[in-house]
Amino acid sequence: xxxxxxxxxxxxxxxxxxxxxxxxxxxxxxxxxxxxxxxxxxxxxxxxxxxxxxxxxxxxxxxxxxxxxxxxxxxxxxxxxxxxxxxxxxxxxxxxxxxxxxxxxxxxxxxxxxxxxxxxxxxxxxxxxxxxxxxxxxxxxxxxxxxxxxxxxxxxxxxxxxxxxxxxxxxxxxxxxxxxxxxxxxxxxxxxxxxxxxxxxxxxxxxxxxxxxxxxxxxxxxxxxxxxxxxxxxxxxxxxxxxxxxxxxxxxxxxxxxxxxxxxxxxxxxxxxxxxxxxx
Length: 280
Known about the structure:
By secondary structure, this protein is an alpha/beta fold. Helices cover 39% and strands 21% of the residues. It starts with a strand and ends with a helix.
């Protein structure tokens, strides 16, 4: 069952900030590198970061992952590189590369020690200048957690900031229970649907078991008995829609997104038609 509405007349940034406030209230660790999927153990860095000797190495490294991080350094043994290696050990699920090649740095327009995150979902890169003496492993971890948007991004206090700062105007949320035995299949189908809208809609996963998500779920007037559910909203005009599901399927997700996009486009055409009729 679908439910359509508007969030009001507040601006896009205000609306997204509201979601972040709802998400992070009571979570003092917000943006401090805290992430439910992250490992904070001192993982072995024997294979991380990968040394990138030339441009071909770097391009292959970036294209091989949804999110890839490269540290560009003038010298391999500088203090910033040491902090970068420490950060790599803290985030085992993200591939880290390191290059001191002048050709590689020049190719990517880097002139100073820089941490760069490359992400496939919107073909964007995010740079962190590491020449500032205040940049350490904690701040590098925070930077990565904020900006690691993926084909399907899990909504957490850290990623909420990156969601707000992304170039996507359309956001689709799958609100579900990650502990459910149906979850693996739900995610497989949701990711398959996300491939169809790559670069157009940011697909987000909201796990109801994460306490910080409770207010976000209630914001869309959803109850646990109604899950799984899809919630979509368009930033510029605050239009939103909610669809409760018996099961997640590629077809249902695709139809829901296409229907919402069609209604948006129709709404944009109506003022033009009205003006034309008035002129006639």
